[in-house]
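By convention, each integer encodes one residue's backbone shape. The lines below illustrate.
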Amino acid sequence: MTDGRTHLAQRIARLGTETAFAVSAEAAAWQEKGNRVYPFHLGDMDLPTPQNIVDAAMKAIADGKTGYCPNAGIMPLREALAADVSASHGVNYGPENVAVQPGGKPVIGKFLLTLMDPGDEVLYPNPGFPIYESQIEFLGGVAKPYGFVPGETDFLLDFDAIEAAITPRTKLLIFNNQHNPTGAESPDTEIETLAELARNHDLYVLSDEAYWDIRYSGRSRSIASLPDMQERTVILYTFSKKYAMTGWRLGAAIGPQEIITHVATLNVNQESCTTHFIQYAGVEALTGDQSGAKKILGILKDRRDVAVRLLNDIPGVSCYAPEATFYLFPDMTELMERKGYDTYDELRRAVLEQTGVSFCTRLHFGRELPGETRRYGRFAYSGIPVADIEEGLGKLKAWAEQ
């Protein structure tokens, strides 16, 4: 006999979520009441997947690629990924260094499952993608956050906080260059300092490169390309951003063969394999016509330019113009003070109800760290066209000026 209650495993209490989806639900509820909403809150894309990729998937279905396939991924895709990342990163990977995944998120959990024991400490960015903290704690690790400080033109890593957080129990470091939510990108000196820290403390690194190709000038650089770092780094690769394939769920873990072999074994245990025909779409994405990806990037750049200009026109708001990602992280401290709001939720809900602009705040990307005094919002422009950016941020400006 039971008492009628479900007795959940203790680990479930440690499982987090993406609270940005709660903002999305609030925006949808507001819209259902007949109100106009400008969706800056969720980093999905309103742009179509390039047609050649869609055609490749349909052909694969017609060709019968609908059954099980190798657990680590089909060889053509693993070879294409190894070649693409080797060329872009200046390293040398082969298909044995690649385990295909149903999206980028599984790489986080499998990296931790492979390298983290219960009680091990993991450094991770905060603000940052909330699934880092969720998975570290769910799997029994100790999440050790590190933050950012404002620089002249971008946010910079808080190395004082990183070094202060390291103890003999620290085993892993998660690094998200081209960063969600800030859009920040480390200069070479920062990446080199971080690599030196990883070598000195014998840390394995998860390099989350989801936004590697979403950049508007310059070139991305990976910590895996630095001396002695390829053998201690696992790269999180995803097709979601560059090719507007968020719902296709296709990604990969790329790293040392010893680690990738165990990631592939986790594939066997968790999902058997990534969808067979979608992997052929990935081959086409990497090796076929790239004009669709270039068009996506051009549209995103136009949106960024408009959104940065208009945010900086709003009294009490200041915003960097990042060269990567499709996120902006404006400082809204003075706006909150001028309008008399004490909490993020008060500001966010007032803005939604009085202007229709829906956005996330710093608190949707981790708990505030000691000493934080500035207040930030995150505006994603991947799912909202230029005309709506202009209209929505114009209303936000008018409200701020009242």
